[in-house]
């Protein structure tokens, strides 16, 4: 009996997103020679007489209309009508064996069978590249959209489930060089950031596997070691940012790759990093005024005449420097106007906006309530001496609106942005061995009656010149508007912004991606829940290792720690606690919220107008409800969670391998209860989607105007009775601009965040899936997911209402920039809004 159905697939494409013509021609030749693509149904109900452990295999059915896939240059999904061999011995199919006898791979999206006897319509969710049989020891197996816990798996499908996991774990390939077509998920240390063969200055530590440099694991690539150090993996040529191995199905699809290359991240890697290093010191071109900075967005910046410009025109595609044009023979570089200065060109300088961005900017997760005075340090006094704050009650008194310091603390009015302890251990090396000149900072703020935060003092600290063990030397600055005091205050705020800029989202998701694919079958309901939130993450991380985190890469050039940039994040990872990434726990830990059953979502915010937290708790609650309804459908008891072998293997591998440097931490959940499963999955989805969106997609809107969010400071604060201090009196704007990034550094940094802040054309947002509607055969999860999407639409409408409420002063602020970073939806490009499902930029 023949069953009608449809096959949705996509042909192989080239890097530019067009069909690979050579492959198409060769596949056509194979078709003429009788080498085709075939499908065989696998029974979920009846065993194969020749192998009782496997389901009965149907006869092969061939894809006859392949020629319809091969026309035209565009790479699109093509739906092909097909017929499938079925007989009564097959019963209900549970899987599909696909054999590709063509020359080239193809992407199989899904297969649908119509009118299966005793069942009806049947869907196979594939979403995978199918390699030619000559390159694979086994044919590909795809399962129906039915989710099964391990013990529920039909006996005829169990061995297929296990064999597929063996392939993904790389069984038999543990010591082989991995190639593009492989589907192997495995772990490695970050031992590929340095290039010791180029000399000691290009060497970097190995991150991961030691107490000195702990780090999450990355995906194994298996490149050969360097000649100089056998423990360091060799690097690809600098511009080859898309040639690093990641499992085939983790690679960008044709739309994402096209966008990626169009935005030229591949080409800017070493080229721009080299330009920075070569030009900054030899051609110290500076901005002379804020008007000149504005020219980046209005008339354009005339690039300095030097040999580096020829390198730009020679090596960079025009899409990267999209506004580079020849005006009377002079190259001009123009950028879109950042939102922070669209409505008001000077509001960024106000204290209110400075405080507002700590609760409604691009790093609203660092501010905490001040619970002791003076602020305390947790640094070891034996190593770092006395790190006590030099801020006194006298310095605060005049800005406390009639409160004493004790009263302000007790009434929960004092808050602090504290970048002291994290900075001190690095300052001597950064300030001595790099061009950066930075401080450890403490900023104390007072919560006013109108809900805004008033900066009260900024403390700038440096290690004692005669040794770290002698403690810190500190200076405290108070708010001022006019004169040299006002200029010093503006510089103090800039130093705070610089230290705040280096805190970014640690690369914590990759171990979850790897462990999920290695330990949980695609049949597992938790795999189906989490998989959309891992899309493109391994690929974007591999590119980051090649062009951003590497020695002299973009991150080292654009942010103040310079060559210590990844070492800095390694130090932050020492204090990393996965469970504290749950938004409610993070807010409670920072003293920004308390449990309160009477408040929305069970938590009362101590700053009621805290846009990130208000919007975030709505998103968190929606995710949590969706995850609870989904998980509760498949697990009806704690015992089911505790006895699930795939789930337990997954969680053990996440803790002991993926985050192996933290495996002894007591804060890891035991994963023995349904509640622990729900909170863990909610946290993973929150981190991959909303938290990443809040920290990433506002970079250009807020920091595209570098004076508002500088990432580098090149000079220390001017001291009285020095030429620099006299210059500050005469020309404060020039001193400010000569302290932060130079013109070339600014151009590079702004170009980079313009790319990072953009949504691609294939973005999939929270509440959406890149699947057919029937991504699962279970009705209740489908209904719950639909409800989740509808809830997110409601939340966005409520955020819009809050942004239009004039009484909520932190929603918009002096810059008239509404807080939109947690709007769930977005369009393409730089929008300052939108929550993609995964970390993909």
Structure description:
The chain is α+β, with helices and mostly antiparallel strands and 841 residues long. It contains 27 helices and 23 strands. β17 and β18 (453-463) form a beta hairpin. The model is unreliable at 264-283 and 312-330 (pLDDT under 50).
Task: Offer a few descriptive terms.
27 helices; 841 residues; alpha+beta
Write the SSE topology.
Elements lengths: L1 E10 L9 H12 L4 E12 L2 E7 L3 E2 L15 E8 L7 E8 L5 E11 L3 E11 L9 E4 L11 H14 L18 E2 L29 E2 L34 H9 L2 H18 L7 H5 L6 E2 L4 H9 L9 E3 L2 E4 L17 H10 L7 E2 L11 H4 L8 H5 L7 H6 L3 E6 L4 H10 L6 E8 L5 E11 L8 E6 L5 H19 L8 H10 L5 H6 L6 H11 L6 H5 L6 H9 L9 H7 L3 E3 L7 E3 L5 H24 L3 H5 L2 H14 L15 H23 L2 H5 L19 H8 L1 H8 L3 H14 L1 E2 L19 H25 L25 E2 L11
Antiparallel strand pairs: 1-5, 1-7, 2-3, 2-4, 2-6, 6-9, 7-8, 10-11, 12-14, 13-14, 15-16, 16-17, 17-18, 18-19, 20-21, 22-23
Catalogue the unreliable spans: 264-283, 312-330
The proportion of strand residues reads 15-25%
Mean pLDDT across all amino acids? 90
Task: Sum up the overall morphology in one term.
Answer: elongated
Distance from first to last alpha carbon: 49 Å
Percent range of helical residues: 25-40%
Oligomer: single chain
Largest sheet: 5 strands, antiparallel
Instruction: Report the total helices.
Output: 27
Number of strands: 23
Structural class: alpha+beta
Radius of gyration, in Å, reads: 29 Å
């Amino acid at each position: 009996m023949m069953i009608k159905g449809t096959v949705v697939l996509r042909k192989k494409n080239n890097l530019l997103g067009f069909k690979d013509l050579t492959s198409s021609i060769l596949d056509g030749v194979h078709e003429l020679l009788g080498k085709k693509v075939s499908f065989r149904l696998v029974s979920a109900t009846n065993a194969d007489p020749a192998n009782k452990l496997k389901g009965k295999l149907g006869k092969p059915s061939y894809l006859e209309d392949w020629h319809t896939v091969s026309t035209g240059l565009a790479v699109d999904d093509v739906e092909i009508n097909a017929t499938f061999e079925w007989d009564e011995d097959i019963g209900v199919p549970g899987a599909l064996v696909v054999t590709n006898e063509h020359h080239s791979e193809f992407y199989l999206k899904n297969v649908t069978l119509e009118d299966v006897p005793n069942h009806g319509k049947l869907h196979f969710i594939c979403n995978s590249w199918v390699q030619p049989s000559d390159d694979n020891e086994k044919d590909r197996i795809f399962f129906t959209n039915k989710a099964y816990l391990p013990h529920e798996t039909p006996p005829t499908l169990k061995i297929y489930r296990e064999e597929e996991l063996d392939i993904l774990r790389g069984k038999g390939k543990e010591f082989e060089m991995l190639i593009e077509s492989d589907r192997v998920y495995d772990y490695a240390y970050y031992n590929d950031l340095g290039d010791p063969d180029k000399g000691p200055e290009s060497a970097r530590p190995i991150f991961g596997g030691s107490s000195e440099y702990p780090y999450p694991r990355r995906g194994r690539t298996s490149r050969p070691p360097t000649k100089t150090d056998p423990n360091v993996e060799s690097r690809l040529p600098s511009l080859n940012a898309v040639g690093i191995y990641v499992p085939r199905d983790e690679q960008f699809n044709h739309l994402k790759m096209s966008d990626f290359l169009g935005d030229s991240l591949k080409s800017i890697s070493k080229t721009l990093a080299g330009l920075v290093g070569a030009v900054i010191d030899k051609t110290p071109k500076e901005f002379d005024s804020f008007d000149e900075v504005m020219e980046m967005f209005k008339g354009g910046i005339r690039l300095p005449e030097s040999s580096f410009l020829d390198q730009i025109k020679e090596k960079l595609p025009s899409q990267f420097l999209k506004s580079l044009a020849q005006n009377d023979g002079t190259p001009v570089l123009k950028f879109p106007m950042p939102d922070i200065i669209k409505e008001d060109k000077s509001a960024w300088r106000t204290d209110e906006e400075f405080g507002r961005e700590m609760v409604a900017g691009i790093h609203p997760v660092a501010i905490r309530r001040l619970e002791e005075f003076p602020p305390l340090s947790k640094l070891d006094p034996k190593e770092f001496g006395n790190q006590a704050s030099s801020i006194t009650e006298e310095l605060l008194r005049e800005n406390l609106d009639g409160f004493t310091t004790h009263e302000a603390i007790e009434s929960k009015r004092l808050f602090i942005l504290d970048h002291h302890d994290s900075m001190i251990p690095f300052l001597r090396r950064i300030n001595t061995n790099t061009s950066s000149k930075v401080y450890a900072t403490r900023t104390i703020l007072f919560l006013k009656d109108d809900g805004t935060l008033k900066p009260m003092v900024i403390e700038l600290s440096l290690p004692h010149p005669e040794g770290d063990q002698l403690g810190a030397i500190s200076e405290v600055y108070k708010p001022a508007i006019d004169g040299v005091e006002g200029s010093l205050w503006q510089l103090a705020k800039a130093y705070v912004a610089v230290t705040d800029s280096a805190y970014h989202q640690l690369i914590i998701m990759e171990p979850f991606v790897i462990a999920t694919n290695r330990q949980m079958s695609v049949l597992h309901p938790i795999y189906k829940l989490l998989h959309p939130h891992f899309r493109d993450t391994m690929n974007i991380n591999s590119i980051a290792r090649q062009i951003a985190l590497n020695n002299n890469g973009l991150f080292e050039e654009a942010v103040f720690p310079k060559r210590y940039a990844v070492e800095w994040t390694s130090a932050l990872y020492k204090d990393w606690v996965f469970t504290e990434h749950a938004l409610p726990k993070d807010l409670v830990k920072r003293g920004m919220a308390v449990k309160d059953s009477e408040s929305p979502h069970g938590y009362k915010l101590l700053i009621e107008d805290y846009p990130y937290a208000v919007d975030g708790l709505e998103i968190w609650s929606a995710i949590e409800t969706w995850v609870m309804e989904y998980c509760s459908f498949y697990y009806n008891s704690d015992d089911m969670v505790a006895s699930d072998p795939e789930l337990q293997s997954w969680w053990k591998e996440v803790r002991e391998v993926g985050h192996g440097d933290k495996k002894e931490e007591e804060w890891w959940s035991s994963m023995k209860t349904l509640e622990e499963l729900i909170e863990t999955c909610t946290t993973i989805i929150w981190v991959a989607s909303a938290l990443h969106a809040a920290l990433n997609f506002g970079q250009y809107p807020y920091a595209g105007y570098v004076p508002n969010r500088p990432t580098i400071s090149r000079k220390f604060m001017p001291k009285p009775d020095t030429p620099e201090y006299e210059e500050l009196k005469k020309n404060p704007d020039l001193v400010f601009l000569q302290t932060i990034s130079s013109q070339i550094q600014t151009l590079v940094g702004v170009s980079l965040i313009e790319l990072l802040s953009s949504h691609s054309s294939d973005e999939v947002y929270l509440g959406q899936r890149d699947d057919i509607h029937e991504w699962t055969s279970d009705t209740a999860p489908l209904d719950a997911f639909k409800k989740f999407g509808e809830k997110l639409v409601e939340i966005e409408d409520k955020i819009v209402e809050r942004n239009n409420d004039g009484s909520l002063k932190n929603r918009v602020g002096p810059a008239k920039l509404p807080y939109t970073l947690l709007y769930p939806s977005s369009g393409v490009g730089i929008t300052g809004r939108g929550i993609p499902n995964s970390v993909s930029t």
